[in-house]
Amino acid sequence: MSEPVSRLDERFSDPGTQATPWENAREVLENAQLSWIATVRGDGRPHVTPLVAVWLDGAFHFCTGPSEQKTRNLAGNPQVVLTTGDGRWDGGLDVMVEGEAERVTDRPALERLAAAWTSKWNGEWQFGVTDDGFSNDVGGDAYVYAVRPAKVLAFGKGTFTHTSYKFA
Count of CB atoms within 10 A of residue 128's CB? Predict the structure, then answer.
């Protein structure tokens, strides 16, 4: 994945600030323990829920059960926003990823993602790989999705910055 083009939005940034480097925003995505996903229900109402996600190979990945609301929403509209960051007002960096959720069914990719989940959470999240996605002893089967960013926004707090990243 090539480096995105970044732009500071001075309307929402403190005077004299600089755009947040992409490396900083990517680090927040890589290290996030909890993220939230926004999808759209068939009747147009929003649906937001927390989840654990993995940033790998230039995409944010998440999994969800075949009968969950997220899965039903994605069948009708794959556009999503994934958010993560720091809940404090006076510090940290919040990052939002906009893009289209696409199912991951390639077995080698699923194997790498299962290993990434296991590694990121020191073995607390372990998945087996199936032809449809993941399986585990606790939650059963899960579909795996990748969101390659169309746009990323980063909001620095304390010293306030609003940076957008556009991807080719």
Answer: 12
How many domains is the chain built from?
1
Residues spanned by the domain of 19: 5-166
- pTM (two decimals): 0.93
Per-residue pLDDT of the chain (168 residues; tens, 9 = 90+): 678 999 999 999 999 999 999 999 999 999 999 999 999 999 999 999 999 999 999 999 999 999 999 999 999 999 999 999 988 899 999 999 999 999 999 999 999 999 999 999 887 888 999 989 999 877 689 999 999 999 999 999 999 999 999 987
Alpha-carbon distance values, 152 to 27, 58, 80, 110 (Å) = 13, 12, 12, 24
